[in-house]
Amino acid sequence: MSTTQLNPATLLENINTAVLVFDDDLKLLSINAAGENLLSVSGKQVLGLQPQEFLPGAVQFFANLKRTQEESRPYIDWGVEINLQNHKTITVGCMITPVLENDVCVQVIAELIDSASFTRVMREESITAVYDTARKSLKGIAHEIKNPLGGLRGAAQLLERELVDVELKEYTQIIIKEADRLRNLVDRMLVHDSRPQLTEVNLHELLEYVCDLVQAEVESQMNITRDYDPSLPLLQGDREQLIQVFINVIRNAMQAIGSDGHIWLRTRIRRRCTIRQHYYKLVAQIDILDDGPGIPADIEHEVFYPLITGRAEGTGLGLSIAQSLLQLHGGAISYSRENEQTIFKILLPLSQKHD
Description:
CATH class of the largest domain: Alpha Beta
Shape: elongated
CATH superfamily of the largest domain: Histidine kinase-like ATPase, C-terminal domain
Helix content: 40-55%
CATH architecture of the largest domain: 2-Layer Sandwich
């Protein structure tokens, strides 16, 4: 067993929530990277300042610190609004703890949790649970459907051999083709449970390859704007599975915008990111945006469930399959609508997870 004693600053840097330490004058002694990210500040610039000096309008937060200091007991408040220097306002949960020496408060530790992020994580976990249940149910149904489909197709083939009338054979061909279509649909419900075959993947090259594939499906030239982060490293992934992910999402965008719309592809590196309760130091974020009408409001919260679709001709499997494949990679996909744009955000880990 290792007996190495870690520096307190090192411990703070490895905490995934924002932690701020204040002295007995409530001046900032230290802030970890998560705190800098949440509050949009530079630690070097705000050390030695009181909260109201670098967080304009942080009256409630400062009052909570004072209360903890004066009463020498922990205090929790889940609805604290903080105005940031960039004029953005966030709502956080505050867990404030006094550091006591001889029953006197000498320091105050504040842990801040972004309420919006917490709510989003809980919603994602809830959606994932429902999704997994739906997938299991569909698999059971799919297996039950495949057996009679095979018998139906075989009977149609035998009947066709006995028929002399060509017009009647057209009906048996309809039966055979529809049975094949349903079998393929069922197969798509059952696939994608195999473990990814990991190789080094260049996401930008892969996105360009998918764009070429989708472009070949339409006659007019697609309007696509690229905004790629050149520093994005290679990732370990299953090339074929990731191609399927991006085909499904970009094809959806292409079908939504029609001939006059626009698609944007954007890549970025994100640091210190949590995906489905797993923490990663480095994550690739791929945003696929379009200016189409978006997903109907009545199904936007179920859009990743199997068989949910806003298009009459759709199967409702494209986004469901994309989510399944991303989960195999430890990744995630989400939908949002902002500034009259549809946004699908894809996260893929670039580093090992840290639970």
